[in-house]
Design goal:
The protein folds into three domains: 5-48, 2-Layer Sandwich (Uridine Diphospho-n-acetylenolpyruvylglucosamine Reductase, domain 2); 56-101; 105-193, no CATH class. It has a three-stranded parallel beta sheet, with no helix packed on it. 68% of the residues lie in helices and 7% in strands. Helix 5 packs antiparallel against helix 7 (138-243). It contains seven helices and five strands.
Length: 244
C-alpha cells in the first residue's frame, strides 16, 4: 500500500473541498481498501466520509422517504419508515395495476463479510510476516497466495452471487408472472378498444351510405311527384275536352 494523507471532515463542504486531484472518498471501504492493499489504486488523499452525519439517516416526509448516502444497509432493512413506504407502494401498485404485494424474504451478506475478514487476517499472518518474506521468494508467495487465499475469495463470491440470484428470482418470478398477466389483460383491452373503434368507423360509413340513400329516395320522390302532377294535368285537360 502506498503512502497517503488521511482526512476525516466533519461537514459536507470540507469533504467537497478535499476531494480534488487524486483524492478518493472512503465510504464503506470494501472496494477501495482492498484495491489499495493490492496496489491497484494509489490515491494521494483518503477522505473518510464516516463522520458526515448529514449524509446518513432516514427521513420520512409525507409520501417521500429520503435515505442518506452513508446510511448502512442494515439500518434501511430494519427501518420502520422504509417498511411503511414500501407497504404504501405495494398498496398503490395493487390498486392501480392490480399487482399483489410480494413477500420478500430477508437476505444478508454478513456471513460473507465475516469469512472475507477471516481470510484477510489469515493472509496477514501467512504472507506479510517477516518469516514468510524471508523464507519464500516473491514468486513463490504469489503462487501460494493464489492457490489458497485468492481461490477461497473467488469461491466466496461465487456462492454469494448464486445465493443473491436465487433470492432475487424468488420474488422476481412471481412479480414477472403478475406483470405478464397484467400485460395480457391490457393487450386484450387494447384489442377490444380497437374492435370498437373499427365498428364505430364501419357504423359511420354505413350511416353515410344510408343518408345518401335517403337523399336519393327523396330526389326520386320529388321526381315522381312532378310526373304525377303532369299526368293529373293531362287527364284533367282530356276530360274537359270530352265534355265539350
Amino acid at each position: 500500500m502506498h503512502a497517503f494523507k488521511y482526512h476525516r471532515p466533519s461537514n459536507v463542504n470540507d469533504a467537497a473541498a478535499l476531494l480534488k486531484g487524486e483524492a478518493r472518498a472512503l465510504a464503506g471501504g470494501q472496494s477501495l481498501v482492498q484495491a489499495m492493499k493490492l496496489r491497484l489504486s494509489s490515491p494521494s488523499d483518503i477522505v473518510d466520509l464516516g463522520g458526515l452525519k448529514d449524509l446518513s439517516g432516514i427521513k420520512a416526509s409525507g409520501s417521500e422517504v429520503t435515505i442518506g448516502a452513508m446510511t448502512r444497509h442494515a439500518e434501511v432493512a430494519h427501518s420502520a419508515e422504509v417498511k411503511k413506504a414500501m407497504e404504501a407502494v405495494n398498496h398503490k401498485f395493487e390498486e392501480e395495476y392490480g399487482l399483489a404485494a410480494i413477500d420478500i424474504p430477508a437476505f444478508g451478506t454478513e456471513r460473507f463479510l465475516v469469512e472475507l475478514t477471516r481470510l484477510e487476517e489469515q493472509c496477514n499472518l501467512d504472507f506479510k510476516s517477516r518469516t514468510s518474506l524471508i523464507t519464500f521468494r516473491r514468486k513463490t508467495l504469489g503462487a501460494l497466495f493464489f492457490d489458497t487465499v485468492a481461490l477461497k475469495v473467488i469461491r466466496i463470491f461465487e456462492i454469494a452471487d448464486r445465493e443473491v440470484h436465487a433470492w432475487m428470482t424468488g420474488f422476481l418470478r412471481p412479480l414477472e408472472q403478475q406483470l405478464s398477466h397484467s400485460q395480457d389483460h391490457t393487450n386484450s383491452r387494447i384489442e377490444g378498444m380497437a374492435r370498437i373503434r373499427n365498428a364505430e368507423t364501419d357504423l359511420v360509413a354505413r350511416l353515410e351510405e344510408l343518408e345518401k340513400l335517403v337523399e336519393d329516395v327523396d330526389a326520386q320522390r320529388r321526381e315522381w311527384d312532378l310526373h304525377s302532377d303532369k299526368l293529373a294535368s293531362l287527364l284533367e285537360v282530356e276530360r274537359d275536352s270530352s265534355l265539350a
